Amino acid sequence: MKIATYRELQSKEELLPLFQHAFWWPFNPTVFDRTIRADSRLKDSPVGYAALIDKQVAGFVGVMDIQTRTLHEAEETVGGIWGVVTHPVHARKGIFKALMQRSHDYFREQGYRFSFLYTSKILIAHAFYRKLGYNDTVVYSSAYKTIEDMKNAARKPGKRSKIDWDKLSELYTRVTGNSTGFVIRDKQYRRMLVTRKKIQPAKCIVTDKGYALLRENEGNTYVRELMALTREEINELILHVEEKTAKTVIDEKVVDKDTLSTYQSRGYKIMREGYDVLMSKQLSDATFTETYGHRFHATSVDSF
Ligand SMILES: CC(C)(COP(=O)(O)OP(=O)(O)OC[C@H]1O[C@@H](n2cnc3c(N)ncnc32)[C@H](O)[C@@H]1OP(=O)(O)O)[C@@H](O)C(=O)NCCC(=O)NCCS
To answer: Which domain holds residue 104?
Structure first.
């Protein structure tokens, strides 16, 4: 088995069936090249490592460089792992382990002290990550509500509107002021939200005291980020989201207690610490808690 970086791959198209089956992602190298250039977390990295057997891609592990804020207000770059998959024909031959090892080597070569990844507790991979030294860092609760309001369904979509990105950035900075974690966003981040995270500006809500980044699909609204300065505003935003929704409101990663209890008080079905999990692994002597404390912040749109 040989290991090549994503950038060295001759036939990137071979990743399409792997990504489609594992992540329902119809991978297109040309489109993805644009993402690489636009996403500061990818643009200077090897993008990922592919295992080659007989010159064919047998497995892949993606790598990113992510800016974080630590407890001491310092900016620190860490590693991010994404797109982990092995071709079924080559399962259980140690490909995943070898590619994870190569990724950790890259992070250490860069001087990174931590590696992060998103997974789900129901995936078999969760147990493999633990074996490699990853721990659960943020275990997300999720909230769901069935609306089925015929009036909402009949409502015509509003005129295309633009998000006030400056207002949104200001609110984001105020709400995350005391937090550590994935809270450093550059100017290109907003483009990534629209192109990669499929946020629909016309569907989003921005007020003086908070905002909700939303994605609508077949009458269902996915809350991808909800930030507010007060608890009352959290309630107002959720109410507003419900008024825009025909079928179901889904927030898969509720990031704080106030938002969770507001969903609960509005009759949402809550799945506590159930499905999605952010894991981290120490790559040096520094521990996670002494570096980030207990205020690590990461929302749905930060996932990779
Ligand atoms: C998770 C996945 C990448 C593992 O790939 P792999 O190349 O088969 O893994 P490896 O051969 O390196 O095995 C790693 C460890 O898992 C064990 N393992 C692998 N598949 C297993 C299985 N189906 N049942 C039990 N153990 C298994 C191996 O025995 C090994 O453990 P060991 O260190 O004790 O020997 C692969 O199953 C996959 O592509 N899954 C679907 C996509 C996915 O879930 N990706 C992760 C998203 S976060």
So the answer is: 2-139+276-302
Residues 208 and 249 placed together within one structural domain of the fold:
yes
Same domain? 251 vs 284: no
- Look at ligand 1, atom 15, and give the residue with the nearest C-alpha: 128
Residue type, 285: D
Q: Are residues 148 and 225 in the same domain?
A: yes
Q: What are phi and psi of 242, to 5 degrees?
A: -60, -40
Maximum separation of any 2 CA atoms in the chain, in Å: 60
Express each pLDDT in 84-101 by its tens digit.
999 999 999 999 999 999
pLDDT at 148 over 90: no
Binning the chain into helix, strand and coil, the percentages to the nearest 5 are 35, 30, 35
DSSP tag of 134: -
Which protein residues touch ligand 1 with a CB less than 6 Å away? 22, 59, 84-86, 91-97, 119, 123-125, 128, 131
Q: Which of 201, 270, 202, 260 is nearest to 235 (CA)?
A: 260
Q: What is the pLDDT of residues 176-190, one digit of tens each?
A: 999 999 999 988 888
**Same domain for 147 and 123:** no
- The residues that bridge with 53 in the sheet, in sequence order, are 56
Q: How far apart are CA 206 and CA 5, in angstroms?
A: 41
131 and 208 inside one domain:
no
How many domains does the chain divide into?
2
**Dihedral of CA 52/57/62/63: which sign?**
positive
CATH number at residue 192: 3.40.630.30
Looking at the CA of residue 92, tell me the nearest atom of ligand 1.
11
Q: Which residue has the higher pLDDT, 77 or 151?
A: 77
Shared domain check, 264 and 294: no
C-alpha angle 304/228/140, rounded to 5°?
40
Same domain, 177 and 90: no
